[in-house]
Amino acid sequence: MEDWERDFAAYVEGRRIALRGTAYLLCGDWHSADDLTQTALTRLYLVWRRIDRIRSIDAYVRQVLVRAYLDERRRPWRRERSAANPPDAPAAGDLSAGVDDRLSLEAMLRRLPPRQRAVLVLRYWCDLDVRATAEVLGISEGTVKSASARGLAAVREALQAPQPQSNQIGGEQ
Fold first, then answer.
1. Which of 94, 110, 135, 138 could make an SS bond with 28 (beta carbons 3.0 to 4.6 A apart)?
2. Dist. CA 102–CA 149, nearest whole Å
3. Residue 18 confidence class, pLDDT cut points 50, 70, 90
4. Same structural domain for residues 2 and 50?
5. Is the four-CA dihedral 83, 88, 93, 96 of positive or negative sign?
6. 107 in a structural domain
7. Which of 88, 109, 98 is nearest to 28 (CA)?
8. Number of C-beta neighbours around residue 38 at 10 A
9. Concatenated DSSP letters for 3-24?
10. Tens of pLDDT along 137-158?
């Protein structure tokens, strides 16, 4: 194995989990997150020997990840939803408020349009500023600001809406 391959393997080992987490927040599905992460890392591998020309490897991979997600969402066949997949049920027991909050937030993110979701994930999960978010998405800073405002407003509105209560896991009556 050559030095550049060892360097690439070390980078992947150190960043794979964080990239997968970001991908999951974008798409809301672990299998799709794995695919997006693999796509981003494959594209990174193709340019790894020229990586010294890239200012920030993390920023480059994040940009590839978000663009792969947005490209995937534009494909017509992705608009179909499978109803045959039952949701994963948590183990029996009480769910903590933190888990409930996280699941609620993930559900809210899934309801947002792809670009708004990407903006919120980059701004508040990846902690990018407006300029960096605009660069990753290839949009203007004003578009980032308005997408952030609309996305946050939608999340706030969903938080204020009454949530259906259920005594059983999975929301069954």
1. 110
2. 21
3. very high
4. yes
5. negative
6. yes
7. 109
8. 15
9. HHHHHHHHHHHHHHHHHHHHHH
10. 999 999 999 999 999 898 888 7
